Amino acid sequence: MQDLKFWSRVLGEGPIAAVAIHHGHELDPAVERLMALSEPERLREEDPHTGILAEVAPTRLVVKKSRFELDLNRPREGAVYRTPEQAWGLQVWNGDLHETVLRAALEKYDAFYASLKEVLLALERTHGRFVLLDLHSYNHRRDGQGAEPADPEKNPQINVGTGAMNRELWAPVVDAFIESLSAQPYDNAPLDVRENVRFRGGHLTHWVRDNFPQTGCALALEVKKTFMDEWTGELDAGRLKTLKQALAQTLEPVQQALRRMQRRSAPPPRRVGHRAIRLGFVVNDIMTEEAGYTTMRLARTARQMGHDAWVIGVGDLSYDADEKIRARARTVPRRVYKANDSFLRDLQGKNAVQERIAVSDLDVVLLRNDPAQDAIARPWAANAGIIFGRAAMRLGAVVLNDPNGLAKATNKMYFQAFPEEVRPRTVITRDRKALHEFAQEMGTLVLKPLQGSGGQSVFLVRREDVANMNQMIDSVSRDGFVIAQEYLPEAEAGDIRLFVMNGEALRHKGRYAAFRRVRKGGDLRSNLHAGGGLARAEITARELALVEIVRPKLIQDGMFLVGLDIVGDKLMEINVFSPGGLGSAQKFEGVNFSEAVIKALERKTEAMSYYRRQFDNVGMAVI
Asked: What Rg, from alpha-carbon coordinates, does the chain have?
């Protein structure tokens, strides 16, 4: 056994390991002086004797420190309880928590996870795949020592948490474990073993999934404290021994399941430079998404590249009492999707995997909802992505585009903050007289709403139409302010949509992510939703010069991915909310630009891991 300060480590043979991260009761002297809780109060919420259960595994790590000094089953930023809400309503500290104590605790946190990763990498190298038993225990007499135990229908003797894993991939292992454990006797009956009844797994199992997505199966085991008196701490050694023997009977069936998995398919080689990442795509409504949408292309590509891709409707977001942002989210089963149609069909249908997830546990949240789509029918939803995105950002997720930047761009007035050299002359008003005067001056102009997208309510006003333009003004001003914009003659040939990522024109495999939208007949609107057509775009120094001019502000506002609509040497619009058309660019250039976007997110996540989420979201958005 190797003594590593506050945990013990045993390295044995075979692909099964165990951890007991809440086994310990010890406190550093500096922590003990600040601790407001008595030893019995701490012991009730700790998981004593789980280190003894961990002895069934040849390889094991058992933590000696109390979870009240450092909770290794929480994300790093929440590993030290600060408030009673984080600790079952308990007042943990006498006075303020010293910064030196916090810093020392987080150093231990980092050291433990570095050691655990070292152990699991060794198992991966030796066996290909491994199983980690994450051992915990839980109270079932919370109403008092003499109170009746909690309802056994809702409180199994052993709860197997599989909420963090790819359940489909690890089904042979999970099923073998539960079946073999359920066959063991306990209190003159088969052991009551059920899945995800009380607990689905904590941070450690998510960490294993993120770092070993194809090779590590972490089972979060919560054992009901029938083996001890949870109020006095008195141990029933006989019952604990029976539970330990029952766990030991699962090792061989689990190893057989691992061998069968290995024979069917070896795990893919470990990816170098980044890990599997957790992405969330916030959309207006999952059920109104279409297969051709760029968001669906990005989500499918992310899954094909081995990442988690959760899709969230703005109406599915929640701010919970524990100050976490959660959402009812959907993803698809782990399989190969060769087309967006089948991906979307599973996402919207009965095959979808549906869970309530913590948005702040995602690595990257992409705000792909368009407020203009909800402004009329669902005004409450228009800014929901920005509002919840800000909260998720504060809790540690990278949110793209930056929600504070997006808040500046909730209507087309944002465009006027860019240099006048790139903009047509523009008036924004509801004053009919001002609009008529501008039309007389310009001769030909375009009228469109300040808020809106998709080419709706867009009118071309020629000099001969000026006398009769009131009807057009009425149509546009019905929903707010009117934009009157200089008409650019080059618009006769349509416009170019050019994608900009991280402040640079998006280029992948030597091709620019761009396409030309052409007018259909005499229709002013080239927008595809309004009936425009498509053609290949030639990107020249003129278009790239426009990118250079707008780049500083895009970077300043944290705009990761935007679409520039270009006519001649001017910009007509800068689309920062859910810019679409990557599939159209791919059609003409023969390059999957979605891969480039996901690779950029991989790089951001890797950079974020080095800084442990201590970063400026705007800076991370555009690196």
From this structure: 29
